[in-house]
Amino acid sequence: MTVIKGLEGIVATTSSISSIVDGVLTYRGYDIDDLAEHASFEETAFLLWFGNLPATAELEKLKRDLSDFAAIPEPLIAQMKLYPKDANTMAALRSAVSGLALYDEAADDMSRSANEIKAVKLQAQIPTIVAALARIRQGLEPIAPKPGFSIAENFLYMLRGEQPDMVSVKALDTGLVLHADHELNASTFAGRVTVATLSDIYSGVTSAIGALKGPLHGGANEAVMRMLEEIGSFENVEPYIRGKLARREKIMGFGHRVYKNGDPRAKHLMKMSRELGAMKGDTKLYDMSVKIEELITGQKGLKPNVDFYSASVYTQLGIDRELFTPIFAISRVSGWTAHILEQYEDNRIIRPRAEYTGLVEQKYVPVTER
Ligand SMILES: CC(=O)SCCNC(=O)CCNC(=O)[C@H](O)C(C)(C)COP(=O)(O)OP(=O)(O)OC[C@H]1O[C@@H](n2cnc3c(N)ncnc32)[C@H](O)[C@@H]1OP(=O)(O)O
Ligand SMILES: O=C([O-])CC(=O)C(=O)O
Predict the structure, then answer these.
(1) In the chain, what are the domains?
(2) d(CA 76, CA 81)
(3) % of the chain exceeding 90 in pLDDT
(4) What is the Cα–Cα distance from 189 to 355, expressed in whole angstroms?
(5) Closest C-alpha to ligand 2, atom 8
(6) H/E element holding 24?
(7) Which of 58, 177, 179, 202 might form a disulfide with 331, Cβ 3.0–4.6 angstroms?
(8) What is the ipTM of this complex?
(9) Residue 182: which of 289, 264, 104, 282 has the closest Cα?
(10) Ligand 1 centroid distance, CA of 262 (Å)
(11) 307 has catalytic annotation
């Protein structure tokens, strides 16, 4: 047996949802640069689920469905109020999404049409859950979703309790487009492994949230912000980063399993970070981030990934760092569910092998003789 640690370079499935070839990311054949510039998140989700950009009537129907499904069950809100206020937000999200299944009578209906509806429902309800968790943590009442708002607008509205400004809505919407799917990343793979046992879509998304939480994956965006806070000032960037490199510690938000010459999403987030800073008249976070990039790329040859500049973007939108990875989940649930639907279409249980390296030929000894 040849063991490839971390399955690097192993092709584990075919997929027609997104691809990364020569550093170019596409969703259903559309370049991410084109989508980031022109598409809304709702159009992007439709594209991932159904394989084509929606016509006007299809997009309007999807928006209506997302609005209609956005409310979450009252008993779930009551349960969320019982979670410890200082619980990890991704752990709370993982519990709440698992809980959603209990209130969906069609949770175990494995027909394509029922699963498509559940994909749209999960997409609609996860932003409501994240906003409710954020408010409950602050001792505030959750705010009900507003019909007719986009996902980005509704999320900021439910978080802040007031109509969000259009610059913030556009920035968040673009962020959601950029994070929506990414081939066979760890959380998508976790979701596909789960549903390949013919378990339900809620189980798949719950597994995926658990995998996204880790700091080597989606959790890196929160870790980047923690690092920026620890550094504190532009002047401290260089000594801080040099110290980390000397101790051979990882710098969060840098490096990637697939991209070796840079993540095509990072430049969009970098631009957004610069523009938001300039608009607010405070470019400190952007300037610090650029300096970190200079040092890491110069010294290690590592480039920023999608998580690096998203930290300063979200902070400049007034969002707490505990919500960064949940926001990633708000976007990525579109990709996870597209992959889950694809897995069901042509399923085989995913069950690789392990090379055994443990003890052999052990003889049982009764407990009293050990
Ligand atoms: C949405 C996303 O999931 S994007 C990724 C988010 N994660 C992060 O930003 C966390 C920081 N980055 C990392 O830990 C890694 O680069 C990963 C997890 C993204 C990729 O991991 P792998 O493909 O296994 O790369 P691996 O860890 O083997 O790195 C190769 C070399 O680069 C080094 N390296 C990789 N990333 C970093 C980093 N961020 N800081 C310092 N060194 C790094 C490794 O230490 C290793 O060096 P070595 O060969 O001397 O041991
Ligand atoms: O693909 C990966 O390994 C991680 C990543 O960038 C993502 O999930 O967006």
Answers:
(1) 5-217+322-345 (1.10.580.10), 220-316 (1.10.230.10)
(2) 9
(3) 99
(4) 21
(5) 185
(6) strand 24-27
(7) 179
(8) 0.98
(9) 264
(10) 13
(11) yes
